[in-house]
Amino acid sequence: MITAVLIFSLVCIHSAVSYTSAAIGNGVELTITDPYHGLVSFVACSSGSLDIKQGESNDVLIVTNNLGQGIYNLKATISSCHPRSVRDYLSLGSLYPDSLAPGKRSVVTLSAADDCPVGPVTLTVALEAEFDGGSARVLADLSVTVVEGQLTLLPGDDGFTASWNGGDSPDGTVILYRYRPVDGQEGDWTGWQEINGASLGETLPGYYEYKAVLGKTESEVISRYVEPPAEPEDIEVLDADASADGGESGGEESTAENETEK
Description:
- This protein is mainly beta.
- Helix content is 11%, strand content 44%.
């Protein structure tokens, strides 16, 4: 049986990596110097840092089979050199397809968890592939920047709902409010507290502010003002005794005038 042993040098130009040399058991060595057209090229989808939003997935790497035969069982993983905390937040999807005929391509997708910390990170990605007579593994550095997801607070007739990247908000999203009295100053706001169920918490007249929170991500604040209840109008009430006295007096005057006329 002929055994193929892969001996490669790792070349990285703008996150482009490939198998660049292979030694076959009979001593014939093939050398390819172009990293973009190596035996199996492993090229980032962008020449710079790739942005990925919290809670979303993006295509990050392109795998191309430049061998003269098919490759199969393609698998990309984040290297175990990264701590578990990184691998809990960022994950690579399965390659589809995971088998490539000569000249064909496959895409590697990276997903960021909803609560993934934002900021730049460099990942070491391992690509594994098999072909008739051998297998190969190559490492590549991938620069990505995790950007904050879009958390939106939506007001409704009966309360608020939160939207995450245009869809339903994930578990762990909370809606908070705080309160300031009508005659209160800027420093008189209460602390932020969670809304109880669908209630808006507007039990007192004054100023209210609302926001949605998911991990360290916050929505824009929505402000509302609840007016104090209207003061009752002043209604003039006539004294019953005075009204009665006035009526009798008027009657006596009328009688006197009638007698004078006679």
